[in-house]
Amino acid sequence: MPVRQTNNNAEIVFTCSEAVFYNTELIAEEHSIVRVLSGELKVIQANKTYVFGAGETHLFPRHRLATLITSEKDGLPYQAIIVKLTQDVLRDFYEQKKNQIAIVPKSEHIIPLPQSPLLDSFFSSMLPYFDLEYKLPQELSKLKIYEAVTVLQSLNKDIDNILSDFSEPHKINLVEFMERNYMFNIPIEKFGYLTGRSLTTFKRDFKKAFSTTPQKWLTEKRLERAYYQLTKERRKPIDVFYEVGFENLSHFSYAFKKQFGQSPTELTTARK
């Protein structure tokens, strides 16, 4: 198994990648705090890339798209603790604070958190939980989420505005969203949800906007991005295919050759 997870409950997870290199797409249904214990985590969003190493922590806001690439570093596998700040618990936490929250612009990006003894203490306190032979009591899990939010409040003055937003995606500009997020390999249904549309409405609006089907357009856009990275940025096919939205190298190579008349390897070999 490439990834091992210890999950005492739905909110607190210890994850360990036993593979040297592991990729996945993420669209979080809940806000999540991630502390990297060892190895390295690369997070690629539409217009920004982050790299987190051991001891670093970040908040991943819900409903944000990202490609995650984990790898070993300094001979150690990727290990991390993930704490999901569930909507039900956050609603309880903010129930009496509705009039105390300032309105500021919402963050579209991951929020790196500064080094802090409070964060260190918080995550250290959870390590023994993963050795339990029984499920962590739900009330204790809730208390740990309350503690996490309180720590975040001390580190980021705008955090309440983000965590207390319980709205669901509303209908947004489809063209702008797709042009910004086409490289993420998620189901068409998820693209529809994130633009505030049912699958039927998404396909109808997409056809009207782009005069083609979502899958055909996505493939062409991903291949165009790959071609640019291979020719202008002089990257290797093995480093490109996943970042542009393909699940495996063979499918990428087949689609690329069908589109451009030569495989990615033939293209990069010819440029030398």
Automatic annotation (TrEMBL):
Keywords: DNA-binding, Transcription, Transcription regulation. Residues 172-270 form the HTH araC/xylS-type domain. PROSITE patterns: HTH_ARAC_FAMILY_2. SMART domains: HTH_ARAC. The keyword DNA-binding applies. It comes from the Bacteria. It holds the Pfam family ExsA_N. The keyword Mitochondrion does not apply. This is AraC family transcriptional regulator. The lineage of its organism: Bacteria, Pseudomonadati, Bacteroidota, Cytophagia, Cytophagales.
